[in-house]
Write a structure and sequence with these properties.
Blueprint: E1 3-6, E2 12-19, E3 27-30, E4 36-43
Parallel strand pairs: 1-3, 2-4
């Protein structure tokens, strides 16, 4: 897990680049309220699949 947030209020993530997710998920937010995510870049190798869970 690269970023893991639990029970967080008023979280803002912006202008962030996350690279090479070979052995982890990128971001997990649980019981997070009033959050903003903007201008996030997920960089992966062309051979690596990218999976999203919402």
């Amino acid at each position: 897990m690269l970023l893991n947030f639990t029970n967080v209020r008023r979280l803002t993530l912006c202008a962030l680049t996350l690279r090479d997710p070979e052995s982890y998920y990128y971001i997990r937010m649980w019981q997070t309220q009033a959050f903003t995510v903007e201008d996030i870049c997920l960089e992966v190798d062309a051979d690596s699949p990218l999976h999203f869970r919402v």
